[in-house]
Write a structure and sequence with these properties.
alpha/beta, 6-stranded mixed sheet, Alpha-Beta Plaits, elongated, Rossmann fold, 401 residues
């Protein structure tokens, strides 16, 4: 079992090899919840996530023994990049096995840091099996979560949180395999026994929740999720023990809640968070975590490695779900000035036109008419309803979507 002494040793070992990330206060979320809400911004860490902490501790602890063959790891992205950055700093080669569904951006980022990338496996567990076979050739295998030195490295986050905010009452942590929460909970509970530590999983892959229900590490079907960093089908033995014994509870969040949290972080705090990193905020906002008024809450924003195209889609879908994007089409006489009159109705209601497409020749449209498709940005559902009412009131028949 990892101890506070192990985490203290890791802290000294990796100092100078990582960034001591800030804890940032959120006035908006504090006002919304009645608590004092802070973000631990591991999205600002080297390689964009907390993973470099555990990898650095493992590699530095091994010393010169790995100078020849180097290291091997399996990861969907963040662990891969953390291992490669740590290996590069130590001057050793790295081989990374990634599951076949790993985001292209994360594959390329891992190669860009200097690793040999092997795509293998439909699950992270299959990728780990392949990496372990490569380790048999003489490489040091760095497990993404079920390793004492990796857990101790991640636990340095807990030390930093309590050093910056000694009065912390609640720490909310994303959970995949459990290495991050195992380390943070070990450190935090040792320094402040009364602190609560809550883990958050994607509902599409609730492996820790299922393991607690069964009383042992238990696999689940890993569904598709935008929180790919916590898409782990089974917790480890070491991490399960910590989750069972010292973590207060595990909650789950939906894909829509994760997406909304990503948008909220982007708009209100200008923080780019990946799905896993936004999961703690999603749990705070969906009511699954009990909030004590006036308490100090720290949300661990574990990473910011999100594909740009994916982020664009997530933001647009989240805005549409909140009623902030309105899509509809209308039929217009194909005459000069008809489109301008429609747009004037929208302008009077302060609708912001994002996209407009004027189509001619559709089989279902009369020859003398055209269908105009519009996409508007609104302030919310009430504003959208006001625009729809004004357009309909001006005599236009709207087709939504």
């Amino acid at each position: 079992m990892v101890t506070l002494a192990d985490i203290r040793a890791a802290e000294g070992r990796i100092a100078g090899h990582i960034i001591r990330t800030p804890v940032v206060f959120s006035p908006t979320l504090s006002a919304m919840t009645g608590a004092q809400v802070w973000f631990k911004l591991e999205a600002l860490q080297k390689a964009g996530s907390f993973k470099v902490r555990g990898a650095s501790n493992k590699i530095l602890a091994a010393g010169d023994a790995i100078k020849g063959m180097g290291v091997v790891a399996a990861s969907a992205g963040n662990h891969a990049q953390g291992v490669v950055v740590a290996a590069h700093a130590a001057g050793v080669p790295a081989v990374i096995v990634m599951p076949e569904w790993a985001a292209i951006s994360k594959q390329e980022a891992t190669r860009g840091y200097g690793a040999q990338v092997i795509l293998h496996g439909r699950t992270l567990e299959e990728s780990i099996d392949r990496a372990e076979s490569l380790a048999a050739e003489g490489r040091l295998f760095i497990h993404p979560f079920d390793d004492g030195e990796v857990i101790a490295g991640q636990g340095t986050i807990g030390l930093e949180i309590l050093a910056d905010l000694p009065e912390t009452d609640l720490i909310v942590v994303p959970v995949g395999g459990g290495g991050l929460i195992a380390g943070i909970a070990t450190a935090a509970k040792a320094l402040r026994p009364e602190v609560s530590v809550v883990g958050v999983q994607a509902a599409a892959c609730p492996s820790a929740e299922e393991s607690l229900r069964q009383g042992r590490p238990a696999p689940v079907r890993a569904g598709r999720t935008i929180a790919d960093g916590i898409r782990v089908a089974e917790t480890g033995d070491l991490t399960f023990s910590a989750i069972r014994d010292i973590v207060d509870t595990i909650v789950v969040v939906t894909e829509e809640e994760i997406a909304d949290a990503m948008l909220l972080l982007l708009e209100r705090k200008h923080i780019v968070a990946e799905g896993a990193g936004a999961a703690p905020l999603a749990a705070l906002m969906n009511g699954s975590i009990e909030i004590t008024p006036g308490s100090t809450i720290v949300l661990v924003i574990s990473g910011g490695n999100v594909d740009s195209a994916m982020l664009f889609r997530i933001v647009r879908q989240s805005m549409a779900r909140q009623g902030r994007i309105l899509r509809f089409s209308v039929l217009l006489d194909d005459q000069p000035g008809t489109l301008a009159r429609l747009l004037s109705v929208i302008a009077e209601k302060r609708g912001n036109i994002l996209h407009i497409h004027h189509t001619l020749g559709e089989s279902s449209v009369p020859v003398q008419m055209a269908r105009v498709h519009l996409e508007l940005e609104t302030r919310g559902r009430d504003h959208g309803e006001a625009i729809k009412k004004a357009v309909a009131g001006a005599g236009y028949e709207m087709r939504m979507g």
